[in-house]
Structures are given as C-alpha cells and as structure tokens.
C-alpha cells in the first residue's frame, strides 16, 4: 500500500557540510519529518530545468519557505532588502499555476504562501517594518520563538475567520512563530482568512474554489502542531483514492 | 513526460546564509544536473524506512554517494574509522532491495555501489588503506584520486565507456565480496570499481563519481532504460 506522495519544493543552494562546500539540492528536514509524521511520503522537487510534468506523479504539493519572490512578478521596483532566488521563482511559479489548474492539494509555507498570492495576480509588501513600524515578525534564524523561555520577539497570535477551512482545522485563535520580513499585500483570487491582530498582517489564505489550497505565513513544520500537514496528507490521500485506513496501515 | 528518476539524499547538519548546522536533506547539485542533462526528471528522496511505495511513481533510481554503510548490514563489527548514518541506511537498504525486486533501472554511485553490493549479499572492506597500504582512492579530505580503471570485455560498463578510462574516486571503503553481482571494473590494485547484475535490465554500480563530469554515457543509459521501462509499465499500473 502506498502513502500519498507529497512534493516539497527544494532549494538549489550553496551549502557547507562536513568537508564540503558545494551547490546542493536541499531542504531542511523539518518539512520532510512533518510530511512523514502525518502519513505522507515526501519527495523534493528541484528547481532545475523547470517543467510541470512531475505534477502528474504527485498527490499533493507543499511550497516551502526561503528567499524573497522577485518583485518583477508583481510589477514593483525592488526594495534594497529584497533578496531573490530567480531559479526557484521561475520553477515554483510554473508549478503553482499548474497545481492550481489541476486542483492538486497545496500547502504554502511562508515564501510558499507569498508565491500563491503572486501566482494569482496578487502582490507583496517587500519589507514589513516599513509598513508596520516593527520587526516583530522576524525571529532570529535558528531560534524557537515558541520555546518556554523565548522572548515575545518572533511570536504572535493569529485570529482566524469563522466558517473558513482554516477555522475548521485550527479554531478561532492560535499563537505562531514568525520568520519573515515580507508579507502578502494583495492576495489576488485567494481569500484572507487569518490575521495578526496586532498589525493586521495577512497570516492565512485559502482558495475558495479549490479542494485544498491553503497558505500560512508562519512555519508549522518547526512546531509540534502538524494539523495543516495532516490536512494536506488527507486531501492528497483522498485525491489519490487512498483510504484513511490504508494510510494508517 | 520525462522519466522520473529518484535520487537518494544525505541527511547532514548543513549551513547556508544565516542558517548554521540545520539538519537538512541534500544531494550535490551535480547529480540533479547529470539526470536533467540526460533527459530525466530528478526528484530527491529523503530516507524513510517505512516502506518502498515511492517506487510506484519512479522510472529509475540513482543511489547517491555519502557516508559509510553500517557494517552490521553485512555482519561485521565497526572499524574505528567507519562513520555510518543508520537512519539513511535503513531507508536506502529497503528501497534498494525493492528496486532490485521490481527490476527498476538503478545506477549506484560510490556509497550507492556499496549499497548494491550489500543488498546482493556481499561485504565491504571498511578501510582500504589497511588492505592496500596506500591512499590513492582518497588522497586527502575533499580531494579526488585519479586512477586508470580497466573494464571487463562484454560488460555493460565497457560497452558504455570503452575498455579503460581514468576515473575520479573518493572513498576509503571498498567492495570485498560482490555477493551475487559481477565485478566488471577494477583499478590496478585490484579494487572493484564497477559492479553489475547481468540478469537485470540495468543495475550498475560505480565506485567513482560520474556525476562530477555529468557523464552522459552512464546517466544517459539509466534514463534510456527508464524510458523504455516506462513505456512497458506505466507508473501506478
């Protein structure tokens, strides 16, 4: 019996490990573990030689975090703090549009949610501190803002819209980690269903006309709360005709 | 659509940008490019010991290089210099055995060749300098050793590469007993550099690193066999 196959968009990145310093196709293991813990099987989709043919093999796809989306895709001048990854942009925009077209279950995380907005004609704030006058959405890399002894920095509440899919999954309110300096401005054809109550920054979007297309601005894969990954796995299993019993087996 | 070629990955603490020692699933981009240039669609396979169901969507498999295999896999005690990754071993042994059973085209590189050997019931030398008295197969950290290798007449590797060639290797372990596989290439010191399973469609292991030169002869043969197999047995069938 196979598990639903979840594609994770990967980085092509210069990395250092052991004695090596080289270009690698890679992704933090937290994403992989979140998929495997919720009954899926993770594969990484590299951004080389972009084409959407690989979607035929997948039951669901998650767009991962990472660098900023090139503002040329939403017709804006580049902010001095905007740091782009052109290869990922080209590949992921194609994959996002095609995945929406075929109604493949989609979860967007951080950059992944921003990519959703841009793919459907929306736009981003390129540097949130310019807009809200605070850096509260930017935790230090490598920290866990949800840890018991962490400062309030990089952690905030979210209010979820009643009646939304996100509300069904997460309830009215939750506290999340936060590692971003950009944010969605115009969500395009997505519906905004979650906000940070301190500054109204968009934190959750979902597509009203898709089976499961949901984006979040925080990093659920770095927490113990994997309800969104479970929902993605379930939507993917259902699309693939795999029953819940089979998944558990 | 292009044939889907799975590439196994390392799991290592990695650093990039502002991130330091983050556990990451990764594979040198050279493998990804070698598969792409040969006409395949690479997907990366993080290790997972649960099951090998992923094979149902793959047309071919590259077993990538990396750390030493755990010697318990071939019934030996660990050498002091053996440096294994048990979680990766568990996922890849499961995947390799299932791929061989399904007659999936497989190219094993370095550790990947050793994995093929162990899955075929063979054994490894855990530290070649102990056996050979020289370090030509891994001259220094991060430095490839260049050596001539000779290939067996009539073998698949000889058909693809000719009877001899200069190879770039980087390994301190080597094949002792190839199990049910056939050794089809060796360096002058007798170390096995290529193994094959003549009874399968395409099962080739090489001890050197053909991805570094994006060697289209080897990756092309894998992709071509994968394409033919896809035509015969479409995925999910």
Summarize the structure.
The complex is a heterodimer of chains A (249) and B (237). With 249 residues, chain A is of the alpha/beta class. Chain A contains 7 helices and 13 strands.
How does this structure look, described?
With 249 residues, chain A is α/β, with parallel strands linked by helices. Chain A has a single domain (5-125, 185-248), classed as Rossmann fold (3-Layer(aba) Sandwich), CATH 3.40.50.880. Chain A has helices at residues 29-37, 86-101, 111-119, 128-132, 165-170, 227-240, 244-248; strands at 5-9, 11-17, 20-28, 41-45, 60-63, 106-109, 123-125, 155-160, 173-177, 183-186, 191-195, 202-206, 213-216. In chain A, α2 links the parallel β5 (60-63) and β6 (106-109). In chain A, α2 packs across α3 (111-119). The longest helix of chain A is centred in the middle third of the chain and has 16 residues, at 86-101. The mean pLDDT of chain A is 94. By secondary structure, chain B is α/β, with parallel strands linked by helices. Chain B has a single domain (4-127, 174-232), classed as Rossmann fold (3-Layer(aba) Sandwich), CATH 3.40.50.880. Helices cover 26% and strands 30% of the residues of chain B. Chain B is built from 6 helices and 13 strands. Chain B has a 9-stranded mixed beta sheet with strand order 4-1-5-6-13-12-11-8-9, with helices on both faces. The mean pLDDT of chain B is 94. Classes of the chains: A alpha/beta (249), B alpha/beta (237).
């Amino acid at each position: 019996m196979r598990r639903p196959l979840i594609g994770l968009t990967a980085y092509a990145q210069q990395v250092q490990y052991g004695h090596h310093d080289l270009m690698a196709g890679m992704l933090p293991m937290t994403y992989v573990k979140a998929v495997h813990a919720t009954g899926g099987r993770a594969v990484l989709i590299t951004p080389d030689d972009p084409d959407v043919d690989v979607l035929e093999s997948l039951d669901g796809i998650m767009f991962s975090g990472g660098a900023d989306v090139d503002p040329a895709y939403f017709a804006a001048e580049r902010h001095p703090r905007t740091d782009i990854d052109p290869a990922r942009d080209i590949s992921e925009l194609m994959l996002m549009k095609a995945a929406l077209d075929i109604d493949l279950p989609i979860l967007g995380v951080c950059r992944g949610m921003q990519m959703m907005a841009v793919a459907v004609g929306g736009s981003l704030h390129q540097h949130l501190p310019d807009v809200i006058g605070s850096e509260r959405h930017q935790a230090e890399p490598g920290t866990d803002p949800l840890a018991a002894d962490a400062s309030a920095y990089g952690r905030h509440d979210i209010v979820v819209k009643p009646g939304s899919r996100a509300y069904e999954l997460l309830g009215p309110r939750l506290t999340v980690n936060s590692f971003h300096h950009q944010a969605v401005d115009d969500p395009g054809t997505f519906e905004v269903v979650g906000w940070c109550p301190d500054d109204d920054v968009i934190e959750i979007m979902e597509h009203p006309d898709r089976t499961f297309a949901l984006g979040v601005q925080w990093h659920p894969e770095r927490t113990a709360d994997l309800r969104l990954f479970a929902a993605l796995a379930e939507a993917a299993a259902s699309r693939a005709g795999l029953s819940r019993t089979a998944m558990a087996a | 659509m292009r044939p889907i070629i799975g590439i196994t990955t390392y799991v290592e603490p990695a650093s990039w940008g502002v991130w330091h020692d983050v556990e990451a699933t990764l594979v040198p981009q050279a493998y990804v490019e070698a598969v792409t240039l040969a006409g395949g669609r690479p997907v990366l396979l993080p290790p997972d010991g649960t099951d090998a169901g992923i094979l149902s969507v793959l047309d071919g498999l590259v077993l990538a290089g990396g750390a030493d295999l755990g010697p318990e896999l071939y019934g030996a005690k660990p050498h002091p210099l053996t440096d294994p990754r048990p979680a990766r071993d568990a996922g890849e042994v499961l995947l390799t055995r299932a791929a061989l059973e399904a007659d999936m085209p497989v190219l094993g590189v370095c550790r990947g060749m050793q994995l093929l050997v162990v899955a075929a019931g063979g054994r490894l030398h855990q530290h070649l300098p102990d056996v050979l008295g020289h370090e030509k197969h891994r001259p220094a950290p991060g430095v490839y050793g260049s050596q001539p290798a000779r290939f067996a007449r009539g073998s698949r590797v000889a058909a693809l590469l000719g009877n001899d060639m200069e190879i770039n290797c980087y390994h301190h372990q080597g094949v002792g007993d190839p199990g049910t596989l056939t050794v089809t290439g060796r360096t002058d010191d007798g170390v096995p550099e290529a193994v094959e399973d003549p009874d399968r469609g395409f099962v080739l292991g090489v001890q050197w690193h053909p991805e570094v030169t994006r060697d289209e002869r080897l990756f092309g043969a894998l992709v071509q066999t994968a394409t033919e197999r896809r035509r015969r047995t479409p995925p999910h069938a």
